[in-house]
């Protein structure tokens, strides 16, 4: 299995939410996920929710991590990504755990983690250093088999990102790619 992982440092500024969405969109193209796929649209919404929570509720810098785990297999003799998982993580320096809420009526806040719960295939959180990591995963469905026994064109293989971690002002969390 090959994995591509990239991450972006997030400042405690609401403008970072839009920057995070643009950054993720730019990374999707290289992973074989088309911008108009439902997976891409769902992922962008999840990025918006989790980065907004980090920026608004912690007031701390954060890291947005995105990883593509491909399940490689053979289709008609060619190697390619047959499925896999897209994982999104937001790591911040706040020790406060996430608190899911249920918004009522016209309330404008309190729906973020409900959306994450409804859209992600899996999600959760754990402590990381002095802060926490909130993560969610989306299953990447296998490409459909060709009809009529014809040959198929393999999806691109996800490249492994080999990057050396560096220390930063983010509690020693390594940065694979800083933008």
UniProtKB/TrEMBL annotation:
Record domain Histidine kinase/HSP90-like ATPase: where: 11-135
GO MF terms, alphabetically ordered: ATP binding; protein serine/threonine kinase activity
Keyword DNA repair: no
Domain of life: Bacteria
Keyword match Iron: no
Keyword line: ATP-binding, Kinase, Nucleotide-binding, Serine/threonine-protein kinase, Transferase
Coiled-coil region(s): none
Name listed for the protein in its UniProt record: ATP-binding protein
């Amino acid at each position: 299995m090959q994995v591509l992982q990239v991450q972006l440092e997030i400042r405690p500024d609401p403008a970072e939410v839009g920057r995070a969405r643009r950054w993720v969109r730019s990374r999707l193209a290289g992973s074989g996920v088309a911008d108009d796929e439902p997976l891409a649209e769902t992922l962008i919404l999840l990025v918006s929710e989790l980065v907004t929570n980090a920026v608004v509720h912690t007031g701390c810098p954060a890291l947005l991590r995105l990883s593509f785990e491909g399940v490689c297999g053979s289709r008609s003799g060619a190697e390619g990504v047959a499925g896999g998982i897209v994982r999104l993580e937001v790591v911040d320096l706040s020790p406060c755990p996430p608190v899911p809420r249920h918004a009522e009526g016209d309330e404008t806040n309190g729906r973020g983690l409900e959306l994450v719960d409804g859209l992600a295939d899996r999600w959760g959180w754990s402590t990381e250093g002095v802060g926490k990591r909130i993560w969610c995963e989306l299953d990447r469905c296998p490409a459909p088999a060709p009809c009529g026994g014809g040959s198929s064109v393999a999806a691109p293989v996800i490249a492994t990102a080999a990057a050396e971690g560096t220390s930063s002002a983010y509690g020693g969390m390594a940065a694979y790619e800083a933008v």
